[in-house]
Amino acid sequence: MTQDGHMSAPVTRVPGDVLVHLRRARDHIDRHFAEPLDLEVIAGTAGISKFHFHRLFTAAYGRTPAAYLSERRVERAQDLLRSANLTVTEVCHGVGFSSLGSFSARFRETVGESPSEFQRRWGMDGPRIPGCVVLMWGLSEKTASEEKRPDAPSS
After folding, report:
1. How many Å apart are CA 89 and CA 100, to the nearest integer?
2. CB 103 within 8 A of CB 89
3. pLDDT digit string (tens) for 99-110?
4. SS3 of residue 85 by DSSP
5. What would the 3-class secondary structure string for 2-36 be?
6. What is the pairing mode between strands 129-130 and 84-85?
7. DSSP string, 41-84
8. What's the pTM value of the predicted model, to 2 decimals?
């Protein structure tokens, strides 16, 4: 709503100079999908207020930031269910969902079948990476990326 009480028009086109900020936030989601992310943190990455960011992101990418994050998590879950020797619950938590029920519902909505059905159908034929290796790799990747950050505390 504008200051004079009228409803503001929905954003239909995102200015080019704002896209770089939206891409930075989208890249942040892509890199940190398994971590708890909220709209304020993601919008802060773009340097935009969370409400304005939500409108601009949705206009630019055709989905809300939460939907985009959920899609990234489900995509990564598909990879893990196909290739890793992990339970559905381990995959659920490994990709950033806090509830097995919401993970399963979102997975089914996106993929068209439950995570366990997907794992049975697509994960049986290929080589399986031991779950401990996947979990260790995830931890070492996080540590390595933190060490490369210029603002990371030195030991």
Report:
1. 6
2. no
3. 999 999 999 999
4. strand
5. CCCCCCCCCCCCCCHHHHHHHHHHHHHHHHCCCCC
6. parallel
7. HHHHHHTS-HHHHHHHHHHHHSS-HHHHHHHHHHHHHHHHHHHE
8. 0.74
Q: Can you say whether the dihedral through the CA atoms of 134, 135, 137, 142 is positive or negative?
A: positive
Residue whose pair of structure tokens reads 């933190």 in the numeric block: 146
Q: Contact at 8 Å (CB) between 11 and 48?
A: no
Measured on CA atoms in the order 71, 77, 82, 88, is the torsion positive or negative?
A: negative
When pLDDT is cut at 50, 70 and 90, the band that residue 13 belongs to is confident
Question: Do the Cβ atoms of 103 and 114 come closer than 8 Å?
Answer: no
The type of residue at 148 is: K
